[in-house]
């Protein structure tokens, strides 16, 4: 059963590479045409040490390179067909750029029932660092589970 | 890029994205690594009680992020957050807007706080968010 006992549960850390081809596919998918994300000279002029990733891409990298992108949900017994994304935040410490190898460490920080248990909100925080341990970002998301438990 | 000059009341973020199609969702599914079938598989969405597939919330947040870094240099972005207020449907044309509501003195730099919204073609809120930008 999904309850507060899940707080503290951590998923397997994910190592993810910021690869240029995959990043271009993402930029194309969202219609991002700004040269800063595509042209090394424009990125360098903006002060980046390489082509930077757009603001939400860290969320994607963890899923792309995880052996099982839905591991945490599976561990908590959450069915994919019952979830919605409630909230998402990023606090950026340093830019991630093409060529970086990043580490994602995610853990459950809260489980809250709403509407008499018809909805359960699961808070997950993810620390993103370089493979050398330098902080890149702290991400947080709230997963909304519909009918997480019978009323 | 140099520090943007932002003042309370400025509305630097303003962008309308193309209508969301099934192709948009298929491409985003592959390129984002979010393979939840809810967004690409009509049978799965119907079995879950929805009339049709709907957009990934993170696609709309990516649109909002794009509108944001069109308006402010990406290297100045310090924080970005959203609440997903309503499901974004196929065909929706997302309009992203943002207004500077506060200038803060941070530990190391001054920050502009922006309130952001993503609305559909009827003006209904889909995402409401915030960003902190170094100025």
From TrEMBL, chain A:
Residues 5-138 form the FAS1-like dehydratase domain. This is Acyl dehydratase. It comes from the Bacteria. It comes from Albimonas pacifica.
UniProtKB/TrEMBL annotation, chain B:
It comes from the Bacteria. InterPro entries: HotDog_dom_sf, MaoC-like_dom. Residues 9-109 form the MaoC-like domain. PANTHER family: (3R)-HYDROXYACYL-ACP DEHYDRATASE SUBUNIT HADB, 3-HYDROXYACYL-THIOESTER DEHYDRATASE HTDX-RELATED. This is Acyl dehydratase. It comes from Albimonas pacifica.
């Amino acid at each position: 059963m999904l309850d507060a006992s899940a707080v503290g549960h951590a998923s397997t850390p994910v190592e993810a590479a910021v690869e240029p081809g995959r990043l271009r596919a993402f930029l194309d998918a969202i219609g991002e045409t700004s040269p800063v994300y595509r042209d090394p000279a424009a990125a360098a002029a903006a002060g980046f040490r390489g082509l930077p990733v757009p603001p939400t891409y860290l969320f994607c990298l963890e899923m792309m390179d995880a052996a099982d992108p839905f591991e945490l949900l599976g561990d908590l017994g959450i069915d994919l067909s019952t979830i919605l994304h409630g909230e998402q935040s990023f606090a950026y410490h340093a830019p991630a750029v093409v060529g970086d190898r990043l580490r994602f460490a995610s853990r459950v920080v809260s489980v809250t029932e709403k509407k008499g248990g018809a909805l359960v909100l699961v808070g997950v925080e993810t620390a993103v660092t370089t493979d050398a341990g330098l902080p890149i970002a702290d991400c947080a998301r709230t997963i909304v589970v519909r009918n997480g438990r019978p009323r | 890029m140099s520090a943007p000059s932002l003042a309370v009341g400025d509305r630097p973020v303003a962008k309308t994205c193309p209508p969301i199609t099934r192709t948009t969702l298929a491409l985003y599914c592959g390129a984002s690594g979010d393979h939840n079938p809810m967004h690409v598989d009509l049978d799965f969405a119907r079995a879950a009680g929805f009339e049709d597939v709907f957009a990934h919330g993170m696609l709309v947040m990516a649109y909002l992020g794009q509108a944001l870094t069109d308006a402010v240099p990406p290297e100045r972005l310090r924080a970005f957050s959203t609440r997903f207020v309503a499901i974004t449907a196929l065909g929706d044309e997302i309009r992203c807007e943002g207004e500077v509501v506060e200038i803060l003195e941070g530990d190391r730099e001054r920050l502009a706080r922006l309130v952001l919204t993503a609305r559909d073609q009827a003006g209904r809120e889909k995402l409401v968010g915030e960003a902190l930008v170094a100025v």
